[in-house]
Amino acid sequence: MSSTPSAGVAAMASAAAGRSSRPASRRRRPAPYLLLLPAVAVLVAAMGYPLVWQVISSLQEFGLAQQFGQPAPFVGLDNYARLVTDPYLWTVVLRSIAFCLVAAGATMAVGVGVALLMRVLPTAVRIVLQISLLLAWAMPVVASMTVWRWLFDWRRGVVNWLLTAAGLDFRGHNWLQEPLSFFAVAAIIVVWMSVPFVAFSVYAGLTQVSEEVLEAAQMDGASPAQRFWGIVVPIIRPVLAIVLLLQIIWDLRVFTQIKLLQDAGSIASETNLLGTYIYQLGTGSSDFGTASAVSIFVLVLTVALSAFYVRGMLKEDES
Fold first, then answer.
1. Is 261 exposed, middle or buried (0-12, 13-18, 19+ CB in 10 A)?
2. In this structure, what DSSP letter does residue 64 have?
3. Is residue 34 included in any domain, yes or no?
C-alpha cells in the first residue's frame, strides 16, 4: 500500500521533469533561428548600412572641397564635441522633446476617446466614422498640408475668418510668425494625422474586453470611470504602451509638417525641431558631418526615451 503513493509521486516528478526539459530542448534546436536568418539579414542590409554610413560620416568633416570630389578627412569626435558645446542644439533638443510629449499625449487622449466612441456608436455611424478616419490617415502629407496652410493663411484663411465672425479680431493674424502659435498649429496638424492610427489600434484592443466582465462590474456598483481604469485599461495596457512608444518616436522625428509650415512663412531658427535642424545642417549648409552626428544623437535619444518599454518587454519575457 505504501509503494503505490511513492510510485505515483515518482511518476509525477518524472513527468514534470520531462515537461521542464522539453522546452529547453526545443530552445536548443537550430531550426527556429535558421528560419529567422532571412528576416534578420534583410533588416541588417536595409538598416545596418545606413547606420554605419551615418557613423562614419559623423567622424568626417565636409566642406567646399568635398563638393568637388575630394575625400572627406576624418576628424574623430570633433563634430560631437562641437555639438555638446553648442547651446542652440540643446535648445532644439528641449523644444523637440516638449513638442513630442505634448503631441503624443494629445494624440493618445483623442485617439482613445475616439476608440471608446466607436465602441458605443451604432454600426452604421461607426462605419462612417471609421471610413472618415481611414481617408484622413491615407491622405498624402503634402496634400493635407496644402489644405492646412490654406486654413491658417493670414490673409484669406478660414480660421481667421471664423474667429473674426465670432467676434474676435483675428484679421491679418499670422499664426506662423510667432513660435508659440506656430507649434500650436503644428501640434494640431500632427495630432490630426496620428489620431486614426491610435483610434484603430485601441479599438482593436477594446474588442478583446469581455462585455460580461463589464456588466458584472456594473451590477456590483462600479462607476464608468472605475470600470474603465480598473478593467479596460489593464486589459489594453500592452496596446496603449506600444502605440504610445510609436507616437513618441514619430513625433520626435517629425519633419515634413514642420518644414512645410516653415516654408509658408516663419523664422526657421526659432521653429526648428531635430528633423528640420538636421536637414538645415546637411542639405542647407552641406555640413554632412555635423548633420550625421546630430542624427546619431537623435538615435540615442530615441532609444533612451523608449527604454522604459523595452525594459518592460524584457521583464515580461523573464516572467
1. buried
2. T
3. no
| Single pTM value for the model | 0.79
> What's the total number of domains in the chain?
1
- Residue-wise pLDDT tens digits, 90-108: 999 999 999 999 999 999 9
Residue type, 58: S
**DSSP percent split of the chain into helix, strand, coil, nearest 5:** 80, 0, 20
User: Phi, psi (5° rounding) for residue 69?
Assistant: 95, 0
Nearest-10 crossing angle of helices 307-318, 233-252: 140
Largest CA distance in the chain: 98
Cβ atoms of 263 and 53 closer than 8 Å: no
Can you give the residue range of the structural domain that contains 119?
79-318
Residues with Cβ within 8 Å of residue 134, at least 6 apart in sequence:
196
Look at the chain and count its residues: 319
User: Is the Cβ–Cβ distance between 252 and 305 less than 8 Å?
Assistant: yes
- Contact between 279 and 255 (Cβ < 8 Å): yes
